[in-house]
Prior knowledge:
By secondary structure, this protein is an alpha/beta fold. It is 43% helix and 16% strand. It has 17 helices and 13 strands. Helix 7 crosses helix 8 and helix 10 (231-240) packs across helix 11 (245-257). It is globular and about 70 Å long. The N and C termini lie far apart (50 Å).
Amino acid sequence: MRQIIQHFTDNDAYTFSCQYYIMQTYPRAEVEYTFFDRNDTIYPKGFAELLNEQLGYMPNVIITEEEIAFMKKRMYYLPQWYFTFLRGYRFNPHELTVTQDEEGHLDIKVRGKWYSTIMWEMPILSIVSELMHHLQGDITAYNPKREYERCVEKTHKILSNGLILSDMGTRRRMSFDHHNMVIRTMKEVYEQGGFTDNDGFHPWTGRFAGTSNVYLAMQYDLVAIGTMSHQIIEFEECVSGIFECNFNVMRKFSDVYDGDNGIYLYDCFGDKVFFSNLSKRMAMMFNGLRVDSGVEEEQLEKIIAKYKSLGIDPATKQVVFSNGLDIDRAIEIHKYVDGRMKDSYGMGTYLTCHVENVKSMNIVVKLTRMRITESREWHDCVKLSCDKGKTLGNPEKCAYLQMMIG
């Protein structure tokens, strides 16, 4: 099978913003990531060998000057010296361990320096997903004309219902080619400016805001969307404790980026922990919050109430919804928000793997262990979230932290 990942920036923007954050705050940190399959998939015999073959190609995937030029333009918050680092970065397969048990379950571990290993999350997930869809025959049965038509229909629905929406579908896409088609099509439809029917021309009320995939953002001159991931909060919990980790990440993140990258992902340990010590200073420094778990309407009300309690007008702040949405659900949330905040939407699998007769995967790679330096002790990292189904990590630690939260 051909090499699946062929471009260095075929990765999410938050990978690069988090990598630079790590280099500035914890340059000696070491971590371990673990692959989780929430569907408990039985992979075909020999899948691990095919995956290792694909991962073995990665050292040859290096950044190009074209990619650097785009990142300098669109990801302006990254300093010049960071691109010198990226020129010298090479994926290291020795950081990976991939095995498959007799039943067919897949086990993947990534271990090494945090600033290096962070680059593996997206390649692992997108390779596993595309490889599985290839072996299942989904790619062979793919109908390009039909999927293009469906993408046009989806984009019309998004834009005519006032949604400001970005693609976040790299990790569980059916294939790179399908992902590429989706981004190209959404941009083409958006640039039409609206649609015409018997009543005349109707301009779009929504907006296609960009994609989290840096390579595809470069290909189509879009905004590369993304700021941070849960892992930096998971890590910080082991440093400063569950009740202070969000505050300390907000402070360090804002110091590193000097006010840029201002959307904070707050739900790593649930909303109660976050809102309990959100200060007015930090609330003012960040543009808004991303809702990635819980019931969106309930989370919105809590966010609005918290901003009001701090004397901040919620209408001046952004809220990004990104929890496994489809278009109908996003429209429902948008109507509920009703202009009370600046709402936008990040949509992933529904855009990049919602293909006829194809079942999408439910896979993640999460931080599960850390130590601040190579000479310090290891600690377990966990994620609790506002959804019990998204709780990951050492069960004993999860239970202990949940008891502390109450």
